[in-house]
Amino acid sequence: MSSREMILRRIREALTDVPAAERPYDEAVPRDYLREHGERDTGETLGLLAENLADYRAIVHHCRPGALPELIGRLLAERGARRVLAPTGLPRELLSRTEATVVDDRGDLTAYDLDAVDSVVTGCAVAVAETGTVVLDAGPDQGGRRITLVPDHHICLVRTPGQVVASVPQALERLDPTRPLTWISGPSATSDIELDRVEGVHGPRRLDVILVDEATASPA
Question: Of the chain's two ends, which shows fewer C-beta atoms within 10 Å, N or C?
Answer without folding.
Answer: C
